[in-house]
């Protein structure tokens, strides 16, 4: 039994069951012991690939989007980019490498709770563990969150014959197990409103942390933009399928097992409930990642790369190889059964 599991078992044995949200927060972010505090996360040599780790093409397209938004804002002298859940900094690095027209105005803040990853963030950027306050940055702000909200802790609830109950984490014979505890009537009503078609045994996540993050991000980006890219469904859709289709664990580039076995050893992710975020503010735009990338010129960048490769071939060295790689990167980023199906949500507060 790992140290984090021992601590959780001892705490629950003394103080009683904890919510799944508290368990997940510890499993992912407990100091020195949580998954992201131990060096887990995105990267070819880590546990999973996100769009920025596929290659520089994703960041190059986002750089084009930033130029468009900068133009829309009247080309201000300063444009703040807040990369929330930045991990090792791959997205910001590829944005800067693409040399967008707004480069001189761009000020980059990378938000990452795993301080061990700050050392890999691009030079000239600011690293911090949380979002800046609404008055900390001067000038318009663009907040980007690529696969962040799926890692924020969720409360699990389950439909029973007697109504909705909370799924909690308890201890039996020294092992972490699931338990149940009742919900207040107002909480039951909230669940029924989110998943009116739920059958007995159905589960849904209540994503208060994601909603609170969005509220803070909208306040920070007043006059700018907030963009979230993630797995996403509605709460009612999640109630209609097995929970392991929207609450998943990952480790070493594959699906892991139960989150209760050796907590801290694997990632725990949950699809983002779009309807719950809309209770804070309805997004101005919602589309797939493939649609977003095409709207901001990925096809032009791929055509440019193909032309460079055909012109230079192997004799072109790294420039030609990088140009050719755009083709395979685009295939992954636009894949309708993979990254291309991610949902892009945009707010213009």
List keywords for this structure.
349 residues; alpha/beta; 5-stranded antiparallel beta sheet; 36% helix; globular
Give the arrangement of secondary structure elements.
Elements: H1 3-15, E1 18-19, H2 20-29, H3 51-54, H4 57-72, E2 79-84, H5 90-97, E3 106-111, E4 126-128, E5 141-146, E6 155-160, E7 163-172, E8 175-182, H6 185-194, E9 203-206, H7 208-220, E10 225-230, E11 232-233, H8 235-239, E12 247-251, E13 254-255, E14 267-270, E15 272-273, H9 274-278, E16 285-288, H10 289-295, H11 298-312, H12 317-334, E17 343-347
Parallel strand pairs: 2-3, 2-5, 3-4, 5-10, 11-15
Antiparallel strand pairs: 1-7, 6-7, 6-9, 7-8, 10-17, 12-13, 12-14, 16-17
Helix pairs in contact: 4-5, 11-12
Report on this structure.
- By secondary structure, the chain is of the alpha/beta class.
- It has helices at 3-15, 20-29, 51-54, 57-72, 90-97, 185-194, 208-220, 235-239, 274-278, 289-295, 298-312, 317-334; strands at 18-19, 79-84, 106-111, 126-128, 141-146, 155-160, 163-172, 175-182, 203-206, 225-230, 232-233, 247-251, 254-255, 267-270, 272-273, 285-288, 343-347.
- It has a seven-stranded mixed sheet, sandwiched between helices. Strands 1, 6, 7, 8 and 9 form a five-stranded antiparallel sheet that branches. The chain has a three-stranded antiparallel sheet with strand order 13-12-14.
What strand line-up does the widest sheet have? 4-3-2-5-10-17-16
Low-confidence stretches: 43-47
The span between the termini is 47 Å
Mean pLDDT: 93
* Strands, count: 17
Give the topology string: H per helix, E per strand: HEHHHEHEEEEEEHEHEEHEEEEHEHHHE
Secondary structure category: alpha/beta
List the quaternary state of the chains. Answer: single chain
What does the overall shape look like? globular
> Helix content range of the residues, please?
25-40%
Instruction: Provide the β-strand percentage band.
Output: 15-25%
Radius of gyration, whole Å: 21 Å
Total helix count?
12
What can be said about the biggest beta sheet? 7 strands, mixed
């Amino acid at each position: 039994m790992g140290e984090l599991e021992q601590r959780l078992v001892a705490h629950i044995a003394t103080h009683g069951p904890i919510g799944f949200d508290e368990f997940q927060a510890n499993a992912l972010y407990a100091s020195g012991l949580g998954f992201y505090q131990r060096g887990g996360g995105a990267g070819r040599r880590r546990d999973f690939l996100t769009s920025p780790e596929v290659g520089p093409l994703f960041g190059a397209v986002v750089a084009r989007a930033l130029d468009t938004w900068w133009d829309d804002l009247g080309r201000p002298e300063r444009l703040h980019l807040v990369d929330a859940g930045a991990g090792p900094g791959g997205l910001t690095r590829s944005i800067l490498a693409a040399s967008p027209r707004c480069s001189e105005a761009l000020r980059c803040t990378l938000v990452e709770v795993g301080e061990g990853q700050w050392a890999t963030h691009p030079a000239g950027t600011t690293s911090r563990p949380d979002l800046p306050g609404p008055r900390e940055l001067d000038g318009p702000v663009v907040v980007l969150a690529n696969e962040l909200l799926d890692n924020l802790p969720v409360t699990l609830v389950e439909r029973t014959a007697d109504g909705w109950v909370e799924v909690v984490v308890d201890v039996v014979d020294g092992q972490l197990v699931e338990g149940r505890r009742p919900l207040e009537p107002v909480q039951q009503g909230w669940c029924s409103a989110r998943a009116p078609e739920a059958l007995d045994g159905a589960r849904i996540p209540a994503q208060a942390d994601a909603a609170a993050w969005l509220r803070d991000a909208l306040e920070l980006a007043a006059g700018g933009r907030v963009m979230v890219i993630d797995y996403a469904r509605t709460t009612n859709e999640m109630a209609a399928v097995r929970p392991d289709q929207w609450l998943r664990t990952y480790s070493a580039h594959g699906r892991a097992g139960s989150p209760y076995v050796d907590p801290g050893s694997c990632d725990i992710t949950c699809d983002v409930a779009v309807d719950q975020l809309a209770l804070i503010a309805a997004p101005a735009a919602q589309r797939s990642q493939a649609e977003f990338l095409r709207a901001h010129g990925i096809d032009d960048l791929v055509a440019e790369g193909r032309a460079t490769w055909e012109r230079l071939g192997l004799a072109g060295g790294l420039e030609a190889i990088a140009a050719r790689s755009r083709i395979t990167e685009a295939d992954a980023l636009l894949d309708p059964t993979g990254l291309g199906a991610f949902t892009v949500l945009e707010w213009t507060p």
